[in-house]
Every structure is written in C-alpha cells, then in structure tokens.
Amino acid sequence: MKPRLPAVLSLFLLLAVGCDGGWSVPGIDTQDFRITFQSAVASPSCGEADAEDPTAMVRAASNFEEFEQIYRIHFPDGSNDPRFDLYWKAESDKESSFTFFAAGTLIDGTMETGSLSYAGGAFQEDRSQGRVTFEIDGRVRTEQLGQWKDGYEDFIITDSTNSEAYPVGCVFTVNYEGVPLAAQGDESSDEGDED
After folding, report:
1. What is the DSSP secondary structure assignment for residue 62, as one 8-state letter?
2. Which of 37, 70, 130, 167 has the fewest CB atoms found within 10 Å of its own CB?
3. 47-65 b/e with 16+ CB inside 10 Å = b?
C-alpha cells in the first residue's frame, strides 16, 4: 500500500481546534466519493526544486505517489442548500472514522455540473523538523454522473518553527479527481462498512 500523504500533508488528519467531542459522523444528506490524489507541486516560495538540499516540501512534491481516500460531503441544511461540510477517512477505515476537515459552498451550478469551493484550518502538527501550522483551500469541478474533475487542494503554511524545512507562505498543491460511491439515504451504514 502506498503512503496516504507525504509526511507534511498528514497534518490535516487532525481535527480543527474545537471539533473534538460531541459530534457524530453525518449519515443524512451525504454523498461519498473515492478521491484519487494524482500529483503534487510546491510553489516557488517552498524552496528551489533544483537546490542541492531541497526543503521538505519540495522533496514531498518530487516524491509524490498517487493514493486514494474517501471524502464525504454533507449538506447540514439539506441537499438544496449550497453550504456543505467535508469529512475524510482512509479507504480501509470503518464508517465512524470520518473526520471533519473543511467547510464549503457550491459556488456554481449543481452537484451534477458545477463547482465546489472549500477551506479548513488552522491545523497544527509537530513534525520531525519542527511544528507547522497550515490551512487548506480547495476547489473541484463536478460533471455528469457527479464525478469530480480537475480538483486541487492547497496546503498553505501560515506558521512554522523551522522556516528552512517548512517556509511560511509555502503552498503545497495536490491535484485530484473523484468518483461517487453509493448515495447515502436517510440511514447511514454503520461499522463494518466496506468501501
């Protein structure tokens, strides 16, 4: 099995501050997608790609390997409302493992043919080379049959205790596409869910 995320991007596995407790995984007004992260690029502010000792961010982009995970889009005010929340889990994890990571809006069109925009953070994680704080900014286009195309997520470093490894202002962009899984009805399938 390939690694799920480059080490620096595992940051968004954490819950945003204040989201840990008193909530449950939504099962109504949801749709699950298998997301395939295909490639990554580090912005020039992350360091020079041809440097003798590239930064952790540049190395992560250069060594990126395709991987998949599951996203759940949830419309808390009903499927006719444009506002949504995004949750994620590893494909092999059970249903209760979904973790909130971003909120967004259907900004154009519909879930069948439109555009979604979302953001999350601030997230923090201690890495072997220092502590980093970052935000996520994403956008994806929807097509017929609800497929997600030309998606990307920007991981934007807003604070760092090691600016050589993780420069503030660095943007690590991961490109992806997604395909819908079976629609969730009024009742969610619980533990034992296999994706």
Report:
1. H
2. 130
3. beeeeeebbbbbbbbeebe
